[in-house]
Amino acid sequence: MMQDIFGQETSLKTAAALESWNGVQMAVLAHSAAAPQHLGALLEAEPEFAMAQAAKGMFLLLLGRSELIPTAHEAYAAAKATEEAALPRERHFIAALGAWLDGRPSAAIAEMEAVLAKHPQDSLAMKMSHAIRFILGDSAGMRRSIERVLPSYDPAHKGRGYLLGCHAFALEETGAYELAEATGRQALWMAPDDAWGLHAVAHVHDMTGNSKAGLDWLSGREEAWAHCNNFRYHVWWHKALMHLDQGQTDEVLALYDREIRQDKTDDYRDISNATSLLMRLELEGVAIGDRWEELAELCANRTEDGCLIFADLHYLLALVGDNRKADTGKLVQRIHADARRGASESDGRMATPGCSLALGLEAFGEGDYKDAFNHLSHGRSSLQLAGGSHAQRDVFERVTIDAGLRAGRLDAVEAILNDRRTQRGGAEDSFALARRALIAEGRGSSAAQSVPAE
Asked: Considering the entire predicted model, what is its pTM?
């Protein structure tokens, strides 16, 4: 029986296959572009390795694309066909894939947690639990999961640096900003290619309104994310957000063209980077030229996807941004249809918060700011269920705030700004400060108009 790089027993038969499997796992932890090559070599060497087939299926589902679901089913069938040769730990991965394909990602998380209960040093199970919880917006669960296994990782464990990177992100998402920054820095020291840990520190600077420190943190550390798959575009997105907070919009647009949209893909993660950044720029009154058009063309082809409400909402941003009313309506209607169906956990997220947010974005695009604010503010209380991070979801918060300002709902907007400040540990970014100034100006104008002329 051979052990993998994390000391876990495997049902692999050859040293070459084990080397490829170790390569897969380390690449997944580092968000490395090399992961598919390692997985391909492994499946060519030992296609009957059920755990690799299960992992392949789960990796495909993480991509959030409906056209990949049949391939994930094929991987599941291949895993089930050789399940008898799999070890008990490996069978949990097969069961996790089956549950996820059945529309129950929370049950897939439970399978990963069952692995970690007996094998806390299994870094792939740790990362998969973390990744699925991230999609579901379960930041508290991410933190609990990491902190349960943390005592089992000694400094020599090959996954410890990446574990700390995941811990840093979970700490940041649960508001422990000071500890998150320290943990993220330690993660990068232990694993210099831990782009997830590096970006966790960037999140801290975003949430605490310290964009200058964030730029200082990312500048000169490009090698920490140069090896990444398309996650590298997301790190560049973080840097662009920091330049935006500093008012350096020319640099934001340059990063958008040179890095963030370097590849014109329709991967929902790449789309979310692009659409949320363009919307932020437009809310600040920055002219963005014809950049919406390229995104809207891609998103118009994704209206029937329905894998993740997080993806759908970002597709909507592009369609609204390019004034594609017919496609916008089509996507909003499909979200509502999925919500009524209620056949899966994803459908539940389409219902809450999806329906309210979708209607709000549609109304915002039509200039009906009263209706937009009503819908968006209603969906705000459940926004975290859309998944992703605080920083990613903040674009919807910003649209809500600006819809309220344009509708004259100054008191309601101020309450949202106050709540946003509380969530950020008392910090305010330039966006919030500018909106508070607009509220003060609006109240001043109202007061002046109410004073009778002498």
From this structure: 0.97
Element spanning 3, H or E:
strand 2-3
> What are the phi and psi torsion angles at 402 (to 5°)?
-70, -35
Coil, strand, or helix at residue 228? strand
Instruction: Provide the residue count of the chain.
Output: 454
328 in Cβ contact with 292 (< 8 Å): no
**Single-letter code of the amino acid located at 196:** W
Separation of alpha carbons 200 and 252, rounded Å: 20
What's the angle, vertex CA 352, arms to CA 351 and CA 355, rounded to 5? 55
Prior bond of 120 cis (ω within 30°): no
The answer to whether the CB of 295 falls within 8 A of the CB of 260 is: no
The type of residue at 150 is L
Contacts of 393 (CB under 8 A, 6+ apart): 383, 384, 386
**213-246, pLDDT tens digit by residue?**
999 999 999 999 999 999 999 999 999 999 999 9
* Cβ pair 231, 249 in contact under 8 A: no
- In angstroms, rounded to a whole number, what is the distance separating the alpha carbons of residues 420 and 377? 13
- 3-state SS assignment for residue 32: strand
Supply the DSSP string of 273-286, one letter for each residue: HHHHHHHHHHHTT-
At 81-109, the pLDDT tens digits run 999 999 999 999 999 999 999 999 999 99
